[in-house]
Amino acid sequence: MLLKNARYLNQAIKKWVHANIWILGDRIVYVGEKLPDKLEGCEIVDCNGMTLVPGYIEPHAHPFQLYNPLSFARYAAQFGTTTLINDNMVLALQLEKKKAFSFLKEMRNIPSTMYWWCRFDAQTEIQNEETTFSHGNIKSWLEHDAVLQGGELTGWPKLLDGDDLMLHWMQEAKRMRKQIEGHFPGASEKTLAKLMLLGADCDHEAINGQEIMNRLMQGYTVSLRYSSIRPDLPQLLDEMHELGIDHYESFIFTTDGSSSSFSDQGIIDQMIRIALEKGVPTIDAYNMGTINVAKYYNIQHLHGNIATGRVANINFLENESNPTPVSVLAKGKWIRKDGENTPFEDNMPWEEYGFEPLEMNWELTSHDMQFSMPFGIKMESAVITKPYSLAIDISGDELSREHDECFFMLIDRKGKWRVNTVIKGFAKELDGLASSYSNTGDIILIGKSKKDMMNAFNHMKEIGGGIVISEQGNIVTEIPLKLKGIMSNKRVEDLIEEERTLLAYLRERGYRFADPIYTLLFFSSTHLPYIRVTQRGMYDVMNKTVLFPTMMR
């Protein structure tokens, strides 16, 4: 392919330059004034009037937020984000290592470029953690050439308490010249300094200008976030500028695994647009979504710039003030051309890699629906839960619609154990919800009516996993998750509509927060305060203790 008369972003000199760009297969093989002597069989694209920039890079993707890695890669590429650096949590928790690595190999064959992390902890209290996150498993993941970093470090309190094994894994990552991604919400300057000394390189949890400055002062690369539960980027840029921060080499962008419906305006292109609107110089705004990420991960010889030898990931813009591309090349293939998407095929043999529909050969019974916990969990935000003392009668089959308390159950997907409690603040008029989507893949039940909770559960089983709502004995909305009960096999565009329908229904029933998908995901996540419902039982995060253990069935 020959891109003639191209005006492109040259980051070596931070200028817009005119050149001809030669592409062979998936690589750029020349950038300069010359034209090829032979053009037989060559696709010639006249780029006159267009502006070319490198494909955008998402450095912190969670590609299992109802969508799957393939569907999200396809969707993101249409908006110009052609490289994703992905969380491996679901692969580590749900698949045996051999199948997980076979899946990583298969993902090399798609037009988008897929890199991965290596998690050091489960982000919750799980049974048999020492087996899932064994030294052998972690070492194998770190040694994999598609893995660029260790983390994110949701278990950093264990590290500071003296977890030598986690420190060893971090040292191994550093020895392999791989980065360590932090997860340090609310961390003090002292804590940030300690974690930097132990090997952390980057953090995405700054929520104001001062927290950004604290991270810069300790030498961190700062990942600015714009996500469905933390749409912080506009405020972060304003407060950075107020503090006089006007150099951008230490900044990158992330959408941090946003739900599908939040991404309908774009991925990294949307973040570049916000940066431009907030007065970030044009080339710096593009660099935060391209070359800054590539340099941070030491992959600038492959990604992040338009130069000889690089992977041919190129976005064609109408002009530099609109970062959403008209055309997109990914590995030298058209993903979008002249405003029309040409998505790559979905012929992924999902079941071959262990992503078959969810099968549960056990029944939920009325005996399971016994609730006698002396306290429940109260939602402070979409993802923060605190303990509270129960003051209502929970012995009946239904709860009153006069308050916002519902029955809550976490039950093992294999049917071995359960935790029964009450949740306050999720909804006021929800009859019954069942979800196989959760942090660990275990089953969540929420509702006012035990009958409808069981009905939703039974239908969720029938469809092979998903999020299901029952009202007065009838299924009223559902999101099927055919891939192990965790992910949809549909396009992101279709998933956006299903998510919006679910959110609208839950809002009518009293859900008042931003993102119910993240609420379901984080009920078990012990990297957030204060009380979590985990495989080990009701867990006090601050004191690191199990308050009430799981009940065996």
TrEMBL record:
Annotated Adenine deaminase C-terminal domain residues: 383-544
Reactions catalysed, as given in the entry: adenine + H2O + H(+) = hypoxanthine + NH4(+)
Signal peptide: none
Transmembrane domains' residue ranges: none
Keywords: Hydrolase
EC number assigned by the record: 3.5.4.2
Alphabetized GO MF terms: adenine deaminase activity
One Pfam family named in its UniProt record: Amidohydro_1
InterPro entries listed in its UniProt record: Adenine_deam_C, Amidohydro-rel, Metal-dep_hydrolase_composite, Metal_Hydrolase
Domain annotation Amidohydrolase-related: ranges: 51-334
SUPFAM superfamilies the UniProt entry points to: Composite domain of metallo-dependent hydrolases (SSF51338), Metallo-dependent hydrolases (SSF51556)
Family statement: Belongs to the metallo-dependent hydrolases superfamily. Adenine deaminase family.
Protein name as it appears in the record: adenine deaminase
